[in-house]
């Protein structure tokens, strides 16, 4: 457009200077021609401005179309605060449980308490390259938990929603991590280090898959003692309101301690490492609360590169009336025989003493299988367990339990 304007002005000037027909001797005529030239140039400027505006609108429209047609997926979860990123996760774990209590067999539709159905929301913000602040809300939603169903309560009623975590934390790469609120105490999971790949259906807390089932006495009548009352794994102080501190990992070693509600406290040492021959995970913990004079427990698990795993756990509590203790062992093997995912097998043995009465000796044997289906984020599992309780003055029938189900994570 600039070139066109220049050519137009040049042409008019040339016309003014050419031949006798255009010769101007009168000053008024010359002034009139100058005004005409100015008008023409002004008109050219207007046309140029309109053209530029039209081109700008076209570019804006093109950009808008490209944005609207973008294949990038929108954010599924957004935060009400742009300084915090939010993630939602959890899983659903449903199963069928068949129990033979020595007198009759029954089928239960259950939520597997080894890994209960749950929903969590995590919010985190990076204060600096080394410091992260976070929040955690996690709730458990169970219908017919394996910890609750029994021969006289096949369909559990009432509130099945409970909080697992309600906490804030501050995680510094060099200074460690501080947790405040309800969540894992330092000693939680210290009896449950397990690399077998089958903990979903069988681990040191052997009562989980049938904890609500009652033993029958020699006359065939239900007793008041449940499987969950006597098969203990003394796994620290669990999840409670506490103030907890974890050191940074030093060569795979971490030290944690927490001041827990009701004047309790605990501390734990954990270790995790990979070697040329396989992977190791281990923990040992001490906890103290008003109801006893202290508890020591721990566990260790080794997964060899061949797929063979060995897991051990033990613990003892010192109290005035009872001194419960337990020992647990598991042998496992896992391999990827199918494209879908790894398959894991295991067999375990558990002995718990003095859990409810001084004479109690509870023994359990179990076998487990878990099939991973990676593309479905799913684990299919089946397990069998026998529960045997020996108690002075009582003849209690053994309990056999078979569970089969699926856990799908999201």
Automatic annotation (TrEMBL):
User: Would you say which domain of life the source belongs to?
Assistant: Bacteria
Q: Which residues form a coiled coil?
A: 30-64
Recorded hits in InterPro entries, A to Z, give: Porin_dom_sf
In the record, which residues are listed under signal peptide?
Answer: 1-23
Keyword terms:
Coiled coil, Signal
Name of the molecule in the record: Porin domain-containing protein
What is the organism of origin for this protein?
Oceanisphaera sediminis
């Amino acid at each position: 457009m600039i070139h066109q304007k220049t050519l137009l002005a040049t042409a008019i000037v040339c016309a003014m200077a050419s031949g006798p027909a255009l010769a101007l001797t009168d000053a008024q005529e010359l002034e009139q021609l100058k005004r005409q030239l100015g008008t023409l140039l002004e008109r050219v400027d207007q046309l140029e401005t309109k053209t530029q505006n039209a081109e700008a609108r076209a570019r804006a429209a093109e950009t808008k179309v490209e944005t609207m047609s973008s294949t990038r997926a929108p954010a599924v979860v957004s935060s009400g605060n742009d300084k915090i990123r939010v993630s939602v996760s959890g899983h659903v774990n449903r199963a069928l449980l068949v129990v033979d209590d020595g007198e009759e067999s029954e089928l239960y539709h259950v939520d597997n308490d080894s890994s209960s159905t749950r929903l969590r929301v995590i919010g985190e913000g990076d204060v600096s390259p080394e410091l992260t602040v976070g929040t955690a809300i996690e709730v458990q939603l169970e219908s017919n938990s394996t910890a609750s169903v029994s021969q006289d309560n096949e369909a559990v009623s009432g509130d099945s929603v409970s909080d697992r975590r309600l906490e804030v934390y501050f995680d510094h790469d060099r200074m460690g991590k501080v947790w405040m609120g309800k969540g894992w105490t330092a000693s939680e999971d210290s009896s449950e280090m397990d690399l077998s790949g089958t903990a979903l259906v069988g681990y040191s807390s052997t009562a989980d898959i049938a904890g609500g089932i009652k033993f029958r006495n020699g006359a065939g009548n239900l007793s008041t003692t449940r499987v969950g009352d006597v098969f203990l794994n003394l796994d620290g102080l669990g999840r409670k309101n506490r103030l907890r501190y974890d050191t940074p990992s030093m060569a795979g070693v971490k030290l944690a301690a927490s001041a827990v509600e009701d004047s309790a406290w605990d501390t734990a040492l954990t270790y995790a490492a990979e070697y040329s021959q396989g992977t190791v995970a281990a923990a040992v913990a001490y906890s103290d609360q008003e109801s006893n004079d202290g508890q020591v427990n721990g566990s260790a698990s080794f997964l060899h590169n061949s797929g063979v795993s060995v897991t051990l756990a033990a613990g003892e509590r010192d109290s005035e009336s009872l001194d419960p203790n337990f020992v647990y062992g598991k042998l496992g093997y896992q391999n990827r025989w199918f494209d879908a995912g790894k398959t894991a097998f295991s067999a375990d043995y558990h002995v718990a003493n003095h859990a409810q009465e001084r004479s109690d000796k509870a023994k359990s044997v179990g076998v487990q299988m878990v099939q991973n289906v990676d593309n479905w984020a799913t684990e299919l599992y089946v397990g069998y367990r026998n529960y045997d309780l020996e108690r002075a003055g009582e003849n209690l029938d053994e309990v056999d339990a078979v569970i089969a189900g699926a856990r799908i994570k999201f």
